[in-house]
Structures are given as structure tokens and as C-alpha cells.
Specification:
globular, 25 helices, 3 domains, mainly alpha, about 575 residues
Length: about 575
């Protein structure tokens, strides 16, 4: 009620205190951002844990009731109306411009994605509700009577949440919105893994392990056995007995009602641009061909052949490029992280105040590698996969380490967490094209920094980029088959397992793989423009500081800021 009254007052508000706003009938950007920040934490309380925002209560969950989803969408619409009354040129403070750009991007992207009706087909092995609740249990605070009580209150809501989720999927079937069968199979298997743990090792026992109260441990174990695991089982039973038979066979998002518009909305949200699928596909072809020519040149130096396919074949079969054990993977990555952090001091004016620690995936988790930001209670994690070590290559591991940690995600995200003065709304508005674009740029920068220990990694670094442009758009708009996608990925040197994982990722997360090169190419272009315009005045530390000083922002805003910096330096 407090927030609803605030919103009513906000929309009726007549600003007289902000002289930077020419349109005095509109609230200031700070007032709009304050409202969005407060309402977001109320609507999606779990998001606070991921971005290190302190909560006063720990018993809330994001509602999956469609009526609540509609209420949130109406709020966004009303806020966007007010935001549309503002002009960025009328905002004098840089930090307030950043707030404007972030809020505008967030609202426009989310409004555009509504056409996809994602709540009606949320069967997802990567970030579906079951994955989110597994992560949530690790964050659940305990240690006091109040916190223990709130933990029970939150987790006793899971059965109703699952019932609602099943109801949403049934509605989705009625309206023609389902997830493809092969993804449903993955979720069914994932749910089984979560249920197969012994109770002592179940990830859902985390609060009991972290609390010293014996009675709480006993009661929480009962909750896991009698409430949490049966909820997982009920959802799994529904998927097996009813949903799987009704799930779609075609994997392209364009198979859904309004699928073409849905895919374009994903592109818009993931790239912060309005490029079409065809533009991205053509750009991908161009970059891939240029990279193949570069691979041929390096490959001739290493293997005395300039045939791309033969070079990749020899790379994959090169015994010097293989790991022998999980322990070796862990040791190599530990060494790479230490070296990359040390060298980063020569290329960046500041480094993050937080540390990054290697954390292997658990049995119920999957992935080739990922990054989890630090929070108040834990360090940042660089996640690596220790399964099937003999099938993993050193060259891939080097690229991954520099992408996820230094000078990639951890450096960028860690610096962003240390920035002072940005509106707190920036903590949970994150843009894939900037975040993943920086990490892709970091892969190239690592070569300039001398971090790669083998020319085989230089081959791998060039063989892969921009293929996501091609196979994601090919899968969703050109009728590409599973075999075509896997073939294009494997041509770059990745294993069939990784190719399959990326194929499945594109199904459940359309256009996300496009964001990497959309942002990476833009940052590279901005650096080239700055170098050409500034000549001897160009300073790489200063350039990196300008790219990183505002945190995650739209690519259009990034170009605006770099152009402004270049003009100032020239004059």
C-alpha cells in the first residue's frame, strides 16, 4: 500500500525543485528511479541478494501469479509515461544521465518482451524457478529466532508457488506457448538430481548447516523432506505425465504465437540495439570469415598448414592441449587467475576491492563456466566445470578464465560495485551487451597483456567469436536444424557436449549469445575511434576507466560518453 500511494503521488507530482528539468510537470529522474527501486525490491525481493542490497525482511518471494505480473506491468507503463516526459539533454549531472539511460532501457526492454508471454512457458534448466530456489536457499539468512522464523515462512510458500507455476503452464498450453520437448527432458532430469541427494547433502539443507540451533536443524530437515522435496516431485510429475506430451517439437521461438516479434524483442533486450536478425547474421558471417583467415595464419606457424578445418582438428588432437585430471584443471586456473590479476595493474588505473575465488559446479549444476558477483556475505566466484577433465582443453580454459575473472567479468563487475554516487537502481539493472561485451573485449585484451601461455589459445580465441550471431539467428529465424547449429559450433573447435549446451542455451535464452559480440565489437570500435582521433594523447588506462566508470550501461550511452571524452581530450 505504501508504494501504491507513493506512485499515485509521484504521477501527480509537479516538480519545482529540479532546475535541470525544463518540463516542470514531470517528476525528476531521481524520483522516478527511487520509485522503481523501492517497487522492484517489494515485487522481486530475492533480487536483493544477488546484488548485495540489504533487506529488513527475508520471508518474501517473487509472485508468479499472473494477476501480480499484470499489476507490475501496469506500474511499469505508468512509470514509462512519466519518464517519456524527460529529455536526457535536460539532465546536467552525469550520474543522473546514467540513471535515465538505465531506467529507459530497462522499461523499454521489459515492455517489449511482454509479447513473448514468458510466464506461460517457463520450463528452463538454466534459470528456471527450481534453479532460482536452489540459489535462494544459499542466501537465506539464519542465526536468530526471527531469521529462522522468516526462513520457514518463505519456504512454506513453495507448494503454492509450484501449484501456480503448473497452472501457468496449463494456460500456456491452451494458448500455444510451450517449451520444446528436449528442454523439458533436461528439467525433468535436473529435478531428479535434486531429489536424489541424501538429506545430509541436499542443497536445500544449507540454512540448517549454517545455523547452530539443534531444534531448527531438526525442523528444517522435516521441512525439506515433507514440503520442499514433495514440491519438486509434484512439478516433475506434472512435466512427465502431462506437459511433455503437449510441449512443442520446434525449438525456434518463432514457433510461438507472435514469435517473430518475440525474437526481435529478445534481440532488443540483449543487445540494447534495434539491429535486425538479418543484420546480425550478416555481420556474424563477415567476422567469422575474417577470424578464420587469422586462424589460418597462426595455424601455419604452429602446424605448418593454413587449412582452417585441419588446424582445428590438430588443435583438438594435440596432446599438449589436454588436461589429465580435475586437479590439474583447478591448479591451472588458480595460476591463470593470479597472473591475470597481477598484469591487470599495468592496464587499469584501479582494480576491484573484492576477491574472486574458484568454485567448481556441484553435481546438480551444469555449464562450461560462469561468474557470480560478490555480496556482503561471500566473495565473487569463478565457476568451473571439473567433470570429464580429459575432454576439456587448456586453450579453452585460458580463454574462459580471462573472460570470467581478470580482465573480464570480475574486473568490470568488481569495479562497478566500488563506484560511488550512482543511483542504487543501477545495482539490479544489468545489460548483457555491456557486461558480456566487456568480457569478450577482455579476451582480446588478454592477448595484448601477454596472458595467454600458448598459441593454441590464440587460435581458439579467434575461432569462436561471432558464431553466436550466426547460429542464434539461424536457429530462430532461418530454420536451422540442431545439426547445423552443433556443426557451426564444433567447427570452431568446441566439443560436441559444449556445442549441445550452447544450442540448448539459445533455445531457452534467445539472443543472449548475441550480446557478447554485440558489445565486444562496439567496445573495440570505440577504442579504435579513440586511438585514431587522439593519437599520442590516447592512454589505455584512461580509456578503460571511461569505459568502466559508470558500470553497466546501454551501448548508445557508452558511445555518447566515449565521444564526449575524445572531444574533451582533443580540445
Amino acid at each position: 500500500m505504501k508504494n501504491n500511494l507513493y506512485l499515485i503521488g509521484l504521477i501527480a507530482f509537479i516538480s519545482c525543485s529540479d532546475n535541470t528539468q525544463k518540463n516542470t510537470s514531470a517528476p525528476s529522474i531521481i524520483e522516478l528511479a527511487d520509485s522503481y527501486y523501492e517497487r522492484t525490491l517489494e515485487t522481486f525481493p530475492e533480487r536483493a541478494y544477488y546484488v548485495d542490497i540489504e533487506l529488513t525482511e527475508h520471508n518474501g518471494i517473487t509472485s508468479n501469479e499472473l494477476a501480480e505480473v499484470s499489476r507490475w506491468e501496469k506500474y511499469q507503463d505508468s512509470l514509462y509515461i512519466e519518464l517519456s516526459k524527460l529529455e536526457v539533454d535536460q539532465i546536467s549531472e552525469q550520474k543522473d544521465r546514467i540513471t535515465y539511460w538505465l531506467l529507459k532501457e530497462e522499461l523499454e526492454a521489459n515492455i517489449g518482451l511482454r509479447i513473448c508471454k514468458r510466464n506461460l512457458w517457463n520450463v528452463n534448466h538454466l534459470n528456471g524457478w527450481q534453479s532460482q530456489w536452489v540459489r535462494l536457499v544459499e542466501f537465506q539468512p539464519v542465526g536468530s529466532a526471527k531469521l529462522r522464523s522468516q526462513a520457514f515462512e518463505r519456504w512454506n510458500k513453495l507448494p503454492a508457488f509450484v501449484d501456480t507455476e503448473i497452472g501457468n503452464l496449463k494456460k500456456g498450453i491452451e494458448e500455444g506457448y510451450t517449451m520444446p520437448k528436449e528442454i523439458v527432458d533436461l528439467v525433468i532430469a535436473q529435478l531428479q538430481v535434486l531429489q536424489d541427494y541424501s538429506i545430509e547433502k541436499s542443497p536445500f539443507m544449507s540454512p540448517a548447516i549454517r545455523d547452530e540451533d539443534p531444534k531448527f536443524k531438526e525442523d528444517w530437515e522435516a521441512l525439506v523432506k515433507q514440503t520442499i522435496l514433495p514440491s519438486l516431485s509434484k512439478y516433475q510429475d506434472y512435466l512427465v505425465s502431462e506437459y511433455l506430451a503437449n510441449a512443442r517439437d520446434k525449438v525456434a521461438v518463432t514457433a510461438l504465437p507472435n514469435g517473430g516479434d518475440c525474437y526481435q524483442a529478445y534481440i532488443r533486450a540483449m543487445t540494447t540495439t534495434n539491429k535486425s536478425a538479418e543484420e546480425l547474421f550478416q555481420l556474424g558471417q563477415k567476422i567469422v570469415n575474417e577470424n578464420k583467415a587469422a586462424v589460418s595464419k597462426i595455424g601455419f606457424e604452429v602446424y605448418e598448414t593454413d587449412d582452417f578445418s585441419e588446424i582445428i582438428k590438430r588443435l583438438n588432437n594435440d596432446p599438449s592441449n589436454n588436461f589429465s585430471s580435475a586437479e590439474e584443471i583447478l591448479a591451472v586456473n588458480t595460476k591463470l587467475l593470479s597472473k591475470a590479476k597481477t598484469e591487470s595493474e599495468k592496464w587499469f588505473a584501479v582494480l576491484p576491492s573484492t576477491e574472486v575465488i574458484i568454485k567448481p559446479y556441484e553435481a546438480h549444476e551444469s555449464g562450461a563456466g560462469s561468474y557470480e558477483p560478490a555480496t556482503e556475505d561471500k566473495p565473487a566466484y569463478y565457476r568451473i566445470n571439473l567433470k570429464n577433465p580429459t575432454q576439456q582443453k587448456r586453450s579453452d580454459n585460458e580463454i574462459l578464465a580471462f573472460h570470467e575473472a581478470y580482465p573480464g567479468h570480475h574486473l568490470q563487475v568488481g569495479i562497478a560495485k566500488d563506484i560511488k554516487g550512482l543511483h542504487p537502481v543501477s545495482k539490479f539493472i544489468k545489460l548483457a551487451s555491456y557486461d558480456e561485451g566487456w568480457a569478450r573485449y577482455g579476451e582480446q585484451l588478454s592477448e595484448e597483456m601477454g596472458l595467454y601461455e600458448s598459441k593454441l589459445s590464440l587460435i581458439g580465441r579467434r575461432a569462436w567469436p561471432a558464431r553466436g550471431f550466426m547460429f542464434d539467428t539461424g536457429l530462430h529465424t532461418k530454420g536451422w536444424s540442431k545439426e547445423q547449429v552443433i556443426s557451426l559450433v564444433m567447427e570452431s573447435g568446441y566439443s560436441e557436449d559444449i556445442a549441445l549446451m550452447l544450442y540448448q542455451r539459445s533455445i531457452v535464452w534467445p539472443a543472449q549469445l548475441i550480446s557478447y559480440d554485440a558489445g565486444g565489437e562496439e567496445i573495440k570500435a570505440l577504442r579504435k575511434m579513440a586511438e585514431e582521433n587522439l593519437g599520442e594523447k590516447f592512454n589505455i588506462k584512461q580509456f578503460h576507466s571511461k569505459i568502466l566508470e559508470n558500470g553497466s550501461i546501454p551501448l548508445s550511452a557508452l558511445r555518447y560518453n566515449i565521444n564526449e571524452w575524445v572531444n574533451e581530450k582533443k580540445n
